[in-house]
Each structure stands twice: as C-alpha cells, then as structure tokens.
Amino acid sequence: MPELPEVETVRAALAPVMTGARIVGVDIRRPDLRWPLPSSLYDDLHNKKVSFVGRRAKIIVIAVEEKAIMLHLGMSGSVRISSHKPNAKPHDHIELQVSNGQETHYITLNDPRRFGYVDSVLLDDLSAHPSMSQLGPEPVAIEDQTLQVGDIVDLPYLNQALAQSKSPIKSFLLDQRQIAGLGNIYVCEALHRAGISPKRKAYTVKGARAARLLPAIQKVLEEAILQGGTSLRDHKQPDGKLGYFVQSLLVYGRDGELCTSCKTPIKAIVQSGRTSFYCPQCQR
DNA sequence: CTCCTGACCTGAGTGC
DNA sequence: TGCACTCAGGTCAGGA
C-alpha cells in the first residue's frame, strides 16, 4: 500500500499524539509480521516515553528512550488512532495505549498481508540498520520532520545515478537505493508529468528530461502529501479519512482511458513484475 | 556486480 | 451464491 506520501500522512498523525507521551499499554497479538517481531519489543515500549516520530523513506521511526522503533507498512499496513479503546478488527496486530497525562490515545497497527515489519534498534545504530543503510536520498524535504533524514536528492546526484543504470527508468525509480520512498503509483505519475516513457533506459534520461523528472517527482509527492495520500483500497489516514490524491492520478489505474493532454489511450504494460501505466504519445 | 523473476500473504473484484 | 482466478501502494532471496 503505502508509498512515501501515505507513510508521511501516518507519521504526521502519530507525531502530535506520541511525542512526549508515555506508552502505558502494549498489546502484541502475534509474534511476527513479515519477520519475527524483536523479542525486546514489549520491554522497549512498555512504560517508556516517546521523544519523536520521524520518517526515512517508507519507514516510520519512533524514538522511545534509547531505542528506535522502525515501522514499515508493507503493501497493506495501516495505523488507526482513536481516543477510546477500539474494538479489535481482523489483522490488528499491535495496539499501543499512549498517555501524555491529560489525554489517552490508542494506536493500532493493522496489516492483512503482513508484508510490513517492526524492528527495534539502539538509536545510535539506526543508520547502520540494513534497511536504512542502503537507502538513497530522500526525494523531498518535509517541514516539521524531527528525524535527521538523509540528503535530499538534487540534480547532480540524479544525473550521475541515472548515467550508471542500464535498467528501465521505471525500475530505477522503484529502486530504493537510488531514490528512497517512491512506489508504483508515484513513479507512474512522475514519469507522466515529466513526459518520459517508463521503458526508456535510465542512462538515456539526461539533459532536459532529467531536469523535468526531478521536479515532477517532487511535485507529485508534495501534492499527494497535502491531500493525505492516495486511497485505492487499503490506505486510510489514521483518523479514518481517505487520502484524496486518487482523484489527481492521471495515468495510474487508467488504462484504456484517454490521456488528459493528448487524448491518446493510456497503456498498461508489465515491467519487472509491476504494472506501468503511461501515455505512449506524451511519454517518450 | 546488475537485472529480473518468483515468493511472501490476504482480500477484493471479476467472470462463469 | 459459489467457485476459480487475477490482481494489489513492497521487498527480498536466488538465479541468470
């Protein structure tokens, strides 16, 4: 499910509820998601104080005293926040109760497919964690983000990375080691906005094309964050609202419909196991 | 090394 | 209504 904008939506909802609050209840309902949960998880959380909620790529990082709790939502993960104890739903795997002394909130992690994971490391070791150390730069800078994220991607970096890859640009942009945080939806949308075919080899994206690509990526992500992400089937914001960016998608999920700029039918092809949607006329 | 495929898992949608 | 089948916001191990 969630790409960077959806994860950022979750982070931004968790931050005001968790920052400075104490975790007074921890209910872990199964031993594993994609991988076994860390055996220390209960102790890492229970009766501990949260100092900040950050994000790196698609990973939410919750600093709990000396530990960093890493939360990845996989394809189908979501978080609900409620002010009273919620009724347990299927696939609610972890429930936390947090209190800042005045208010109490319940935070529930739901993940039907269990492609997500939770891990726990010392804060000092966070950047060395295998799923952190390989990540490329962040595509956009987010205000109010307390976590020290990696560098923000810039044109010189992008040009150099593109020049070294023989993959199709579609696969290049999905590769979290190149730029971190993009997924299938926003890659399709960014390539459409930039007028670049998903089939084009990365090393041939240069000059004006590369210069269009970077702002296309950044704008599509920034707009999506403002609209609470994209709700297709699973994603909801933690307060239960949908993400409204779905109405701004110009190609994703629209095969057979006419391109908004040139009226050519949108095509769907499969590239490295993922569907790419694009306009064969506008995107070259 | 790089690149691609299949596997992981459940639920929603479609067509018969 | 039921059943078989396909597909899905991600990533990773393994093979070419």
Q: Main traits of this protein?
A:
Helicase, Ruva Protein, domain 3, globular, single chain, 7 helices, N-terminal domain of MutM-like DNA repair proteins, DNA-binding, alpha+beta, 284 residues, 10 strands
Could you please describe the fold and organization of this structure?
α1 packs across α7 (208-226) and α6 (184-194) packs across α7. The protein has two domains: 4-133, MutM-like, N-terminal (N-terminal domain of MutM-like DNA repair proteins, Alpha-Beta Barrel), CATH 3.20.190.10; 155-278, Helicase, Ruva Protein, domain 3 (Orthogonal Bundle). With 284 residues, it is of the alpha+beta class. 24% of the residues lie in helices and 22% in strands. It binds a DNA duplex (16 and 16 nucleotides) through residues 1-3, 5-7, 34, 58, 72-76, 90-91, 112-116, 131, 165-167, 171, 174, 176, 183-186, 229-235, 252, 272-275.
Topology:
Blueprint (H helix, E strand, L loop, with lengths): L3 H15 L3 E7 L12 H5 L4 E7 L2 E6 L2 E6 L5 E5 L9 E8 L4 E7 L6 E6 L7 H4 L21 H9 L5 H6 L9 H11 L13 H19 L40 E5 L2 E5 L6
Antiparallel strand pairs: 1-6, 2-3, 3-4, 4-8, 5-7, 6-7, 9-10
Helix pairs in contact: 1-7, 6-7
The structure holds a DNA duplex (16 and 16 nucleotides).
Broad shape:
globular
Helical run tally: 7
CATH architecture of the largest domain, by name, is Alpha-Beta Barrel
Could you name the CATH homologous superfamily of the largest domain? MutM-like, N-terminal
**What is the CATH third-level topology name of the largest domain?**
N-terminal domain of MutM-like DNA repair proteins
What's the alpha carbon Rg, rounded to whole Å? Answer: 20 Å
Separation of the first and last Cα atoms: 28 Å
The share of residues in extended strands comes to: 15-25%
| Widest β-sheet, arrangement of strands | 1-6-7-5
Question: Topology as H/E string?
Answer: HEHEEEEEEEHHHHHEE
Number of domains: 2
CATH class of the largest domain: Alpha Beta
Average pLDDT across residues? 95
Report on the biggest sheet: 4 strands, antiparallel
Q: Which stretches are poorly predicted, pLDDT < 50 over at least 5 residues? A: none
**Helix content estimate:** 10-25%
Structural class, from secondary structure content? alpha+beta
The count of strands amounts to: 10
